[in-house]
From TrEMBL, chains A, B, C, D:
NADP(+) binds at R48, R54. Its EC number is 4.2.3.5. This is Chorismate synthase. Its cofactor is FMNH2. The gene is aroC. Pathway: Metabolic intermediate biosynthesis; chorismate biosynthesis; chorismate from D-erythrose 4-phosphate and phosphoenolpyruvate: step 7/7. SUPFAM superfamilies: Chorismate synthase, AroC. GO terms for cellular component: cytosol. One of its GO terms (molecular function) is chorismate synthase activity. Belongs to the chorismate synthase family. FMN binds at R130, S131, S132, N242, A243, G287, K302, P303, T304, S305, S306, R328. Reduced FMN (FMNH(2)). InterPro entries: Chorismate_synth (IPR000453), Chorismate_synth_AroC_sf (IPR035904), Chorismate_synthase_CS (IPR020541). Keywords: Amino-acid biosynthesis, Aromatic amino acid biosynthesis, FAD, Flavoprotein, FMN, Lyase, NADP.
Length: 361, 361, 361, 361
């Protein structure tokens, strides 16, 4: 019940509000003698950064990361991990708190305003405070460290549906993901999304999305029985991302529609003398433990709750009000959830790999 | 990374294999001075017990629970919790180990045989050993204790889809759940399922299902920000159940299809001076914290992997083989997942309530 | 804050009261493919068992352990760990509850009666309930499993002082420990203790003791910085044993009397090309991490609080009373703490070794 | 096994090395709606700060704390906790790394140099890196937050022995603690220590000390049975402080010398209708749970390992060398351990109080 820590042995603790002085993370349990540069972490942050297209919030956050501890710096800037906790700091820069003054006393529908007040009796209303997706910058920075632990594993995410527009999986092209502002692997769907989202944005509305994250080359044997299942940890990880309402592994909710014959992934021996699964309904996990197949997780992000259309709500004194949000927001918060999903996959796998290999690595 | 423990303050540790001498659970962190009887726990186990209809495995397990510690017994059999750990023991009785002799050396597709060997290099093959759904009896027994902690919260589960047969929500009737062997709340769908599953069973096949669990009257304020989110814990809980491949909260994966206007649950003041939400797409959780609305979780159970149809696989020496399972099995393991889902909901809520209220209760 | 679990990766959960039906333990995180027999565990329990000399309580507990899970049994009774949790059960047999009826309503000075009531508002008064040293049988059984994980490490404990009788360290002989009823390594001190304790016992009084536990051949590098220090874990472990009031590592409290020159253990290179420390004031731990020297922990056990001499106290209604204890008790509960201290050392080291090596071992 | 986190519900994570850019802490689980100012935290840091007398290291560290998150700031600078994690940052200023260049390749006896290399294969040698007592500034800052949670409890520490000079307890005066540079409660002993430590300092030697920390007005009922004992947590807490080799509760190691009659604290009813203990050998804890008496913990700090006298050691290549330390150091590191011990007591009690009361407070 560590509210702000994630992971067991490779463990990340984050802090910071949307409109406070800074946000940050402490990465604990990172094995020693891994090398990287500050740019590796910065590049991951840049990929998630808002304001890069007209489809994400126009908040201008440079999100410059400072690495405060846990590394030895060589004269060329190369950093070597020492096994001690890595402190990461990102100063908040573009905090237009006044944008939020009109909603200080109201509960925005779909937001955590009501529940934070119910729980704590006090709340930093500026930009959602701690409940802001701004916290996910810390996850992405920590995920960049996690990837150092598992260099052999390739982790990639993609947006596979936006509102009613779903990709055609036969057109899946990982290269395409970097070519459009949606992280969409299907170029035709991406073009459709562009027009669609422009309409959503101009009308002050918002729309949901589905993200898929795939980890290739994870070894068999990661995870554990019962409550330490790899899929159980992935479900917790993905559901902890802001606005996520559903998580699937492999065939996911659709597994309910299959027969036993259709579902069970058959096994043959490959030419290289290693087992080959003929399908991957399991999403690379059986009994909570990785099979060596790609680990496939999917999650649904609800539409951004901040919209221009007035919605009925109440204020903190119990008066009925109407709320509309005029701040800068993403019309589809699911887009920027793609690098966050990748980061969470990296955090979960790094944690299990450290357990599997031992601390020394 | 406690593989066999679940929860934080209200915490359950289970042990035991399908075909060993016994299974059991230790319930730690249960508040003192709660009263119950052994029959309360037994009744919960009886609801999950196999062999009660032709649609569940014919294994005959009386599943008699013994309460070993953590209670004071009055002369009339009433038990009072003392705050110390409650040890629960269930002896295994009907262990036909010979049924499994033919698959000792093979990896059954869809089962954890391959992954347990990959991880541990050794495996109790009898009935799936630790990966057997038999472990869920411990969850149900522990869930009965958890319910003592939260008497004001009503937790009910239902099977809402079996294969391609989905219920009609306008016919939802909680009373109906106890009247058919499927825990199905829609009497017309239940009748359909009966014929459908008979066919599946006779053909030696199997089919998946979707379960929904609803907790009514949970207070607002349960849960926590970021990684201690109530929905994150629920996702981990439900995904830890055998054969589950997807978890949804409220609108779930379908949230991706909604617009911001459709999704955000509006709020009005009720006649009793308390906030009323006009819809529940959030499934009772905003920002990871309960709203006071019903908490709604849904999960998909894949079809039983043990089927009569031979499937291609390999054996432990890497030889290609065909495997079919002749043991006694459920044609739809999702049915018995209903009480298990209820138990997991109870465990998660009891854990958060203990945190909320403090230990003394 | 798991009240009844100890350890992180190699983790033990215990349950059971002194006078309930049974006590038991669940050992989670034990690596797979370790072999042992039930007799290995039983032998450890027999060493701690009461009633073996006139110097320990005359309660007759056979302490027969049943191994319920987590192992595969060969036809010759050899058990192989499977990596799944090992359930251990010990039935209580000799429960003379009536011995305690006279103190049901009173708080025995030095016992946990008052504090359990203050905390829980209810209490199993029979034999101290959960606060009874009977729980330590579970630690000893679990410790026998822990030793399987670290076969290269030799763990031995000894009683080094009883009341005012301290051993002469120049006479330390590990062989002697098994030859007297006190686990005392100094034969001359042991003889003195015999007469001394006979007097204590006959007068219905009790006396304290100091125990030393030494682990030889632990590798350098176990432990971790700051809050994961090996000595911090050992301090928690030893202080968790009933009646312990002080814990020392190496020079212990006496380190305060040393100068920097006296205290710092100098290092030379040994003939085998490995570092040799010229002294061991550090008790084998520097900065929380093992040096490769013997790990040395010491702890003080207060005198048994159950004595014949009447002591002033109050009852549960706040009336002033006098309490004397007529049940069967150890005149020096420190004696039986020796195997318990060894078990706790084994649990701590096994936990750190599993972390160091990884799960697979 | 969180190496850099302490506590369960009220939980502190620290990061940072002696000679890196900064050190810091994240305080998680702090209840909401507590008010304080930055000066409250700064004052605690100032009390621990080095360079305030000739008896502590002359390193000049202003130790200015920045509060990054978890609070709402009023216009008058008053901070109110929001229940979200409180990020604390302290920049390192006076980092004379060159002082350490001569010992980069050598293992200083008594320091963690050898063990960090054994564990991690890499080490920040500057000022001890992560093993430096500089980390304790984070504990003190976090401890200041912890004290907000338990305003009714008075926590005070004192140095009760330095080398062979022990205080006379009959002269104990809490007021005196602030009047001498040693936190010594006995004015006569304090004067003796002054001359003594001057000699030690001038000779380039060092000396150990014993610290006692007392918490008054803690309620009965804090702590838990078995492995969640309050004294077990305190032992872990105190032993985790740099250079600590022994921890005592109440009568401590001396409990071994007592008889049952002497040891058991008798109870009478006080004039106010509340129980009164007639002595406090238990140190305020019975069966791991607080009695309501003062909670008394004591710990021994070994002499500073950095001394001018050359000591025999080896270098990282296994060559035999002699090492002496010329950096700025405390002749008695135990002095500055007093506020650290108080902070650890506050952290443990706040953690248990949060558990006792529930999160909402």
């Amino acid at each position: 019940m560590s509210h702000n820590s994630f992971g067991h042995l490779f463990r990340v603790t984050t802090f910071g509000e949307s409109h406070g002085p800074a946000i940050g993370a402490v990465v604990d349990g990172c094995p020693p003698r891994l090398t990287f540069t500050r740019d590796d972490v910065q590049a991951a942050l840049d990929r998630r950064r808002p304001g890069q297209s007209r489809f994400t919030t126009q908040r201008k956050e440079p999100d410059q990361v400072e690495i405060l501890s846990g590394v030895l710096e060589a004269s060329d800037g190369t950093l070597t991990t020492t096994g001690t906790p890595i402190g990461l700091l990102i100063r908040n820069v573009d905090q237009r708190s006044k944008d939020y003054s009109n909603i200080a006393g109201s509960y925005r529908p779909g937001h955590a305003d009501f529940t934070y007040d119910a729980k704590y009796g006090v709340r930093d209303h500026r930009g959602g405070g701690r409940s802001s997706a701004r916290e996910t910058a810390c996850r992405v920075a920590a995920g960049a460290i996690a990837k150092l632990v598992i260099p052999e594993i390739t982790i990639r995410g993609a947006l596979v549906a936006m509102g009613s527009i779903a990709i055609d999986r036969s057109r899946w092209d990982w290269e395409e993901v970097a070519r459009n502002p949606f992280f969409c692997p299907d170029p035709i769907a991406a073009r459709e999304m562009e027009g669609y989202l422009d309409g959503v944005r101009k009308s002050g509305s918002s729309v949901g999305a589905v993200i898929e994250v795939v980890a290739e080359n994870a070894p068999a044997g990661l995870g554990a029985p019962i409550y330490g299942k790899l899929d159980s940890d992935l479900a917790a990880a993905m559901m902890s991302i802001n606005a996520v309402k559903g998580v699937e592994i492999g065939a996911g909710m659709g597994a309910a529609l299959l027969t036993g014959e259709q579902n069970a992934d058959e096994i043959r021996m490959g030419a290289d003398g290693r087992p080959v699964f003929l399908s991957n309904n399991a999403g690379g996990i059986l009994g909570g433990i990785s099979t060596g197949q790609p680990v496939v997780a999917r999650f649904a992000v609800k539409p951004t709750s901040s919209i221009l259309t007035p919605r009925r709500s109440i204020d903190t004194s119990g008066q009925e009000v109407e709320v509309s949000t005029r701040g800068r927001h993403d019309p589809c918060v699911g887009i920027r959830a793609v690098p966050v999903g990748e980061a969470m996959m990296a955090l979960v796998l790094a944690d299990h790999v450290v357990r599997h290999r031992g601390q020394i690595g």
